[in-house]
Fold these 4 entries.
Entry 1:
Amino acid sequence: MRAWLGALSLLLLLAGPLGAAEGLDVWPPELEQGQPLVARACLGQGVQGPGAELSLLGRRLPMVAGPGGCLVGMAGVDLDDKPGPVHLEVLSGDKVLLSRTLTVHARDYGTRKITVDGKFMELSPQNLARYQEETARQKAVYASLLPRMLWSGPWRPPLDSAVVGIFGRRSLVNGQPRSPHGGVDLRGAMGTPVLAPAAGRVALVLDTYFSGLTVLIDHGLGVVSGYRHFSKALVREGQMVRPGQVIGLVGMSGRVTGPHLHFDMHLAGARVDPLAWIKASAQLARWARQP
Ligand SMILES: [Zn+2]
């Protein structure tokens, strides 16, 4: 019996995906569309991974050294990534140091149907050009993969208030699918201070067509947070911010019907639930042993 159990556990170890891949821990254990993950890779005695990256779904994010010779990092499953098996890999250049097969599960965040006057459906050539230029500038920030972690410890919410618009909800406008809601809307009266949830560098301050006055903060390692519809921005591009520092005031700039804060998170460009990211940051801080 004991020998049989031993053979079974050896088989499970060899089977890889059935058992936990040795050395590569992920949290949370289940991957879903629009959700972040944090990872810890322990490479064993004397094996270091300088310049190591975590690769998921074609996105590569820099990892950093944690305690005990382990590396820590993070990745995201975008709202539009397809469900199914995926490979999470720790890479050093093209060399795979560790890998693990995970499953992305579909997640339904709901759909709402909206009917608007047809004239709001199409942008003028001028506004379209403006929108495209703004999108390109923001994408360039999401693509910045600064190989340093500018923050330390768990994140805090930028505004301590209720959710008035959930992350990920899809909309059908006059029967046509529109981009899903890429962030979470938090209730806030005009002029309420919005706080940086973690340290980082202000990468963009821009008055945009749809999102109004927008601030993007680059936190390093491919992690970028966004704050939109501000009435006033209180930071400049290039400025370093501390956690809890006031970065702007709640407003209703852009295409909105009332004041609120739109808060979003990009991990190497993948749109993930910002409130789930706040929870993931606490797990990362435990692994990195940051208070
Ligand atoms: Zn929003």
Entry 2:
Amino acid sequence: MSQSGQLAVAVVEQVAAVRLELEDRLGPSVSGFESLGQLLPRLGAAPTVVVLGPSCSDASILADVERTIAGRPDVGVVLVAGELSTTILQLALRSGVKDVLTLQGDTLQIAEAIERVGVGLTIGGAAPMAAATQPGADTGAQGGGARVTTVFSTKGGSGKSVIATNLAVVLAQQSEGPVCLVDADLQFGDVAVMMKLAPVHTVVDAVSNIDHLDTALLESLLATHEPSGLRVLPAPLEPAFADQISANDMITMVNILRRFCSHVVIDTPAYLNDVVLGLVEESDDVLLVAGMDIPNIKNVKIGLQTLRLLNTPMEKLRLVLNRANSKVKLDIGGVERTLQVSAEALIPSDVVVPQSVNKGVPFVLSHPKSGVAKAVRSLAEILSGSDAESRRLHG
Ligand SMILES: Nc1ncnc2c1ncn2[C@@H]1O[C@H](COP(=O)(O)OP(=O)(O)OP(=O)(O)O)[C@@H](O)[C@H]1O
Ligand SMILES: [Mg+2]
């Protein structure tokens, strides 16, 4: 079977025309097979990514796939379905398929999925060379140290999502390892819209596979913000799905992300629920965002009191004052005295913020020289700095 570098790629599709189309799209090093049965005796020593065509979106074929790849860390499977439905997605992921795409989709997306799955494969128990440094690899204790930052506020519209997205983009630009932004505003999350992403998968797909979720599977479900390389776990597309996701599910996902990311940033809704409390507890830093008006400050004070009552370690709370230069006649010192916390970041008010939100381009990219972008970069520096400090303290 033909191989590309260390990795072999095989297409399995019963319908000849579709098989040839897939082979054609994926390049000359790809081999085509009519059935899984035909492919099996040809599986060689090299790690192999099997691309299943649309005719394989069938329960009995996927059951065969599951049996075939059980105990074979050298074989990874991607399904290219005719059309994507929740049933096919669940069936495929439960059978051990690592990613599901559609035939109508971009060829580049299929190629990227093959590459991601390939990185997680092993030859005779040893990881291929790239695996130790690639995001798809389960880096275990070695890489198990992402810093987790939750962006929170008890007031709606205070700027959480704007700050979370821009901060995550800056961290993605600066970090060596992957950075992931998790949209934990499960009902009304708008991170994907703010970054002009059209996600194929969301947190719902991760939760429906929570029992066998590993780094490779979770990574395959993340969207990529191409301009910055930031990985994104988007909120459900329908508010009703939020009920299916528990605090434990979110914590499980964040802990898996910790293994292969350098930094995880979490955007949250404007209220304290089980999910938010669980994430606050898991986080290394909690950015408490307050807008510069009296209702904001009042709500943040109540939020702070609640977190204190819940024994949240105060040292991980960092006050971020948003729209801090507005001519709103609120003095920063007064706000800090009221909240009994000093502000670690002052984000100015700037018209480029709503402009960039409407364009779907984070302002740190569209207006890197603006005051808001500088403020977010300083915040990122504080978080990276405390990361280093914490690593020194804890070993
Ligand atoms: N520093 C700023 N300067 C100007 N406008 C801002 C600033 N921060 C936020 N905004 C505006 O406020 C709006 C609300 O911000 P954002 O969506 O980030 O708030 P949020 O706290 O996530 O809201 P929600 O609670 O609804 O999730 C944004 O569309 C943005 O245009
Ligand atoms: Mg928001």
Entry 3:
Amino acid sequence: MATFIPKGKNGPVVIKSLNSNQISDAYRDRLVISYQFIESCVPTIAFPFGDRVLNTPVMVGPIGGFDRVSEAGTLGAARATAEAGSIFWTGFHNKTEWTEILKAGVPAVRVIKPLKDNKRLLEEIAFDTENGAAGYAMDIDHGLTVYGELDAQQEQFSPKTVADFRLLSEASPLPFFLKGVVSVHDALLAAEAGVTGIVISGHNNRFPCAVPPLKILPKIREAVGDRLQILVDGGLNTGYEVFKALALGADGVLSARGMLAAYSKEGPDGLTQHILEVTAELKGAMGNTGSPDLKHINRESVILL
Ligand SMILES: Cc1cc2nc3c(=O)[nH]c(=O)nc-3n(C[C@H](O)[C@H](O)[C@H](O)COP(=O)(O)O)c2cc1C
């Protein structure tokens, strides 16, 4: 009996109709802004994150490569993000880099993989808590591979339950986010587990034919109400795209590939300026849609063509 040998880690993503990034970008681009100018005002932007207040709801999403594109490395990118009044999210791959960021006192969030062993997870969460992380997260879409087998990278991963998430949430006073939610089902279970929030994310085309994050976002917001802080990512590279997400019900966004590109092109100053530019564009979209602050984004102002 033959066994199936996967050609690549992420499966058959070269087939266009299966490419979730393309499906998601096409949906994003069909959303347009209905501006309104009468009785408009200059908006204010203050984004609550845990016990901090940030200057922007746009944070740098976890993505590898900051160490390869600038001499200032990943720590330089984290510092540049803090310069813009934002927070740097990073992956689970490099504990040395992560320790450097924490030692430097730069506010950052680490996305921990769904390790099978909860004891190991509790150790990592204790490390983050004791060393001043701004929060912690888990990319829940890594329990199984795209082919439905248990996933692993150095350590064994596994799908997690509501009871697991409750345990991990109660292990630290820091904000805890589940990244990779793309269904009302998972959002409701996240709320039941008592986590701080979720990141609605397709994880860079990890699964074929996935619903666009911006399409499922309003349904998730309706289902969970204010029980969760909702972040979203996936091709949100300008302030106008960020505004679309906020108008559809998100509290904030992550941007990964766009931030890496800005860092690659112009280093730390370029990354800081990019975050400030996206935030300025967002402020423009807010002011000219009658959205005075992040809590009062005009939900009627985004229309699907
Ligand atoms: C090269 C690469 C590495 C990534 N590594 C991680 C990771 O370690 N953890 C994680 O949660 N997401 C990771 N992601 C997913 C991103 O955080 C993000 O969810 C995705 O790229 C969509 O956002 P974007 O369109 O702003 O890039 C990675 C994405 C890319 C392209």
Entry 4:
Amino acid sequence: MLRVVVLGAAAGGGVPQWNCGCPVCRTARTEHPELQSTQASIAISADGEHWFLINASPDLRQQLIATPQLHPVAGKLRHSPISGVILTNGEIDAVAGLLSMREGWPFTIYAHPRVLSILKDNSIFNVLSEKNVRRQPIELDRAFQPALPDGSPSGIEIEPFAVAGKAAWYLEGKPHPDGRPQNSGSDGGGDTLGLRIADKTTGKYFYFLAACAGITDDLKARLAGAPLIFFDGTVWRDDELIAAGLGNKTGQSMGHIAMSGENGAIGSLAGLDIARKIFLHINNSNPALLHDSAEREIAERAGWQIPADGTEITL
Ligand SMILES: [Zn+2]
């Protein structure tokens, strides 16, 4: 049985974002605190005892406090059910939480060499001593099983695959620490991964794509018929940050497709017989976060869900 807990569903900054007075952030601070959401991450387990995080958000400490499944077991002075962290990109909202896991509990970080090169290049991550925290490279299109603390297989099979995307924004205009140029190759070079996550025993599976800059026919074929997908829901429309006066970046320039529009997620993934569709990595500028918005209605009518933090799904 595969258990999935949504630790957070928001994009970088969370909801509300510390310095933002947009309608969603204002509402989340005042009359609708239930709109508050931490930055995107999920936790998965096949045995209910050992858990793996998909990305480690800057809100990890708060997420762990709020998630009983991830508390230390009773009777142990030092313990965590977390056996590993799988990183799908090197953005701050995917890796900064690692710094909150520096208190000497052993676990393994699984990431593409491109993302591992970013960790290596930033000496602050050395607080995770290699003695305790192993860094395990993962390859595109090669399934692996994250290991339990005793080295035995976890029963979870993860297949990483390339998704259209960009290198982390703080690397923009700078050489990539792995030495290869930015956006090298059509696959983005491993900077942005999608994951197929399966229970080895039952064969049940789902997809995780917290960042995706475009939906190709290949990706559609891959996702068709899936029981569950978590998909990039950063912006409602590509120019929404600019239109709202919140910034000068489009969704595309940040490596994210929009929910709406001809090439957006809702339209592109319609009719693919996906049983459950959940948006993740939703920016606070996105009006679909508001329960009574026209955009929310459109998303829900198309079968999409915007999850609350703590939502648990069993496959
Ligand atoms: Zn805001």
